[in-house]
Amino acid sequence: MVESARVASRDDIPRIAELARGLRAELRGYRGGDLWAARDVMGEPLEDRVADLLERDDTILIVGALDDVVVGYGILAVEELRDGSHLAVVGELFVEPEARSVGVGEALAGALVARARGFGCRGVDVIALPGHRATKNFFEEQGFTARAIVMHHELDPGPAS
User: Fold this and answer.
1) Rounded to 5 degrees, what angle do the CA atoms 89, 107, 46 make?
2) Closest by Cα among 122, 115, 59 to 92
3) CA-CA distance, 144 to 128, in Å (whole number)?
4) What domains lie within the chain, and their CATH numbers?
5) Cα separation of 73 and 15, whole Å?
6) Can you tell me the distance from the alpha carbon of 66 to that of 111, in angstroms, rounded to the nearest whole number?
7) pTM score > 0.90 for this model?
8) Are 124 and 76 in contact (CB under 8 A)?
9) Could you tell me whether strands 69-80 and 59-66 are parallel, antiparallel, or unpaired per DSSP bridges?
10) Where are the extended beta strands (E) located within the chain?
11) Angle separating helix axes 104-118 and 133-141, nearest 10 degrees
């Protein structure tokens, strides 16, 4: 099997939307997953959101494949910081469970980091949910280190005061 990563095209939209739904289903089961799904990722209709991303100049969408079959995707957005420098943020990165541990994730991460360099970014951020040790380990293997830990206090959804 040959793993690869390339820039997504309009033909990839239905497959990316399908993969994005798989990502959401998987991560909702982790601590922080419900809030992550409500705040940090594209909403429905995913096909429209993916199509919108393909038109943006500050975002790149990469697909990962095994023998030319798309089995993963990654989204990288570039943010301008107050000092005028740029930071790349990986908003989503997912590889189908059956295609993990064969190099597709590494190809995706490498392509996203290369694009961040091409944009002149000073670094790349990505979120790993607490308890998702495999994600944390994967990104550490790709050279990422923690630079912040977000703390959260869940509130009782009782009546507003």
Assistant:
1) 55
2) 59
3) 11
4) 3-141 (3.40.630.30)
5) 9
6) 15
7) yes
8) yes
9) antiparallel
10) 3-7, 59-66, 69-80, 86-95, 124-126
11) 60
